Amino acid sequence: MIELYYWPTPNGHKITMFLEEAGLHYRIRPVDISAGDQFKPEFLAFSPNNRMPAIIDTAPSDGGDPVTVFESGAILLYLAEKTGKFLPAGIRERKTVMEWVFWQVGGLGPMAGQNHHFGVYAPEKIQYAIDRYVNETNRLYGVLDRRLQDRAFIAGEHYTIADMAAYPWIVPWKRQQQDLAAFPNLQRWFDRVRERPATLKAYARGEPLSNRPSVTEEGKKLLFGQTAATVASRA
């Protein structure tokens, strides 16, 4: 059993995509990030960065005590190694998958996240910041489009955790002020991943939580006003 601490964000969707693909039994534990659930002491005990997703594997492969994992990229790697799925065993193929997972967690995710923040959530529209992150998101789309020019999936001809890591960050392409039609290889890949049964199931699992009311002003303060002191005061 995998206990998944989750909210329907791009990083949350990465993990449900893997779990559905692998057919692992899991239970969602909602972490309402706009209500401050990520600051609860019981969550911080195993997710010290006060971010979801995080997991508790109650049946780890070594047969020992439950294993906790935080950070979406680390969770994907852990689950891939646990199941032997979606991560090649060969040193060269594995290296390629890990390059693109790190590309997503270090580049596409943070840049698209800042794109969302300044374009959608910021209380004042700072044009320089909007242009900076819209342009950088566009550059990263171009990197991925070139990568997919002559291959079915990001790491080659097989679907891997690299695809699961990147896909949810392309889903909000309109909010990121991008034109997916301008990246034909990326769009072809995007459509292929979107149509996978496990992808459909993963996003369906998040729909009940996605349909909740929009983030309030108080919720925005929780999400975007964190400092070391404020986190400590809520823990």
TrEMBL record:
Domain GST N-terminal per the UniProt entry, residue ranges: 1-87
InterPro entries to which the protein is assigned, alphabetical: Glutathione-S-Trfase_C-like, Glutathione-S-Trfase_C_sf, Glutathione_S-Trfase, Glutathione_S-Trfase_N, GST_C, Thioredoxin-like_sf
UniProt family annotation: Belongs to the GST superfamily.
Name of the molecule in the record: Glutathione S-transferase N-terminal domain-containing protein
Occurrences of domain GST C-terminal (ranges): 90-214
PROSITE patterns: GST_CTER (PS50405), GST_NTER (PS50404)
